[in-house]
Specification:
253 residues, alpha/beta, Rossmann fold, 8 helices, globular, binds NADP nicotinamide-adenine-dinucleotide phosphate
Length: 253
């Protein structure tokens, strides 16, 4: 174990969707704990690069559309070529489509399942193959949701994908724990990001959500920092297949 059990000094973290929202908060928390960051995604993560660099850590952009798993191997190759190693994968990129189940389209289904579940799995596979081939372990954290536990409304493919993330996290933990690969998930509650803009601008939904959160406020990306650093650190070496809700108490209600 490192001299400080939560230290990530000398480590490299791949974070998908790190240009904004939760991914940016996760990347900054990992950088504060000492990790260099490969920000993987389709939009330039300029603000993230600036903030990580200001913390004295390296941050590169690996440009990749994550609609399909096609770029998974090249993401691993580029991270290794530019940063020399991979210790952590944060599967954060995700999308959502809202419509009544009666009107839900195949495109709304495929798009969300592609990014949130299929690419998440094959990126985990590509990173784990690299670790396995080099006889070493690492940490994978998948970003789940309250809809990994609950049904939700008007978000059929999102609920299916995030429920799938919970199952896959457990399956991968079972298969890879013996290889020293820790696969866990964080289930954020309701956070103020682009993903939830439609909910927050609907006054009724906004109030109904706030009324149910014991902490009485929307989460901010920084609120996930402690959870992700813990799960990526040596302090969590014996934690496998866990899903850690960071939800202001939502699930306890
Ligand atoms: P966000 O601000 O909309 O960020 C989503 C991220 O995913 C962005 O970086 C986005 O890139 C990226 N992304 C989406 N589709 C992509 C694609 N096809 N290819 C490459 N990148 C893609 O939302 P967020 O709230 O931070 O969401 C981050 C994760 O947390 C998601 O998995 C979401 O489901 C999950 N989550 C969020 C909440 C919440 O309350 N906000 C709660 C539970 C779980 P672009 O900027 O290029 O679109």
């Amino acid at each position: 174990m490192a001299s400080h059990p939560f230290s990530l000094h000398g480590q490299v973290a791949l974070v998908t969707g790190a240009n904004t929202g939760l991914g940016q908060g996760l990347a900054l928390a990992l950088a504060r704990a000492g990790a260099d960051i490969a920000a993987v995604g389709r939009s330039a993560p300029d603000a993230t690069i600036e903030a990580v660099t200001a913390l004295g850590r390296r941050c590169i952009w690996i440009e990749a559309a994550l609609d399909t798993p096609a770029p998974a191997q090249s993401i691993v190759d580029r991270a290794l070529a530019q940063l020399g190693r991979i210790d952590i994968l944060i599967n954060n990129a995700g999308t959502i489509r809202r419509n009544d189940a009666l009107d839900f389209t195949e495109d709304d289904w495929d798009q969300v399942m592609g990014v949130n579940l299929k690419t998440l799995f094959f990126l985990a596979q590509a990173v784990a193959r690299h670790w396995s081939a080099n006889a070493r372990g690492g940490k994978i954290v998948n970003i789940a949701s309250m809809l990994s536990f609950q049904g939700g409304v008007r978000v059929a493919s999102y609920t299916a994908s995030k429920s799938g993330v919970l199952g896959l996290t457990r399956l991968l933990a079972n298969e890879w724990a013996g290889k020293g690969i820790n696969v866990n998930a964080i289930a954020p509650g309701y956070f103020a990001t682009n993903n939830t803009e439609a909910l927050r601008t609907d006054e009724k939904r906004n109030q109904a959500i706030l009324d149910r959160i014991p902490a009485g406020r929307w989460g901010q990306p920084d609120d996930l920092g402690g959870a992700v650093v813990f799960l990526c650190s040596a302090a969590a070496d014996y934690v496998h297949g866990a899903v850690l809700p960071v939800d202001g108490g939502w699930l306890a209600r």
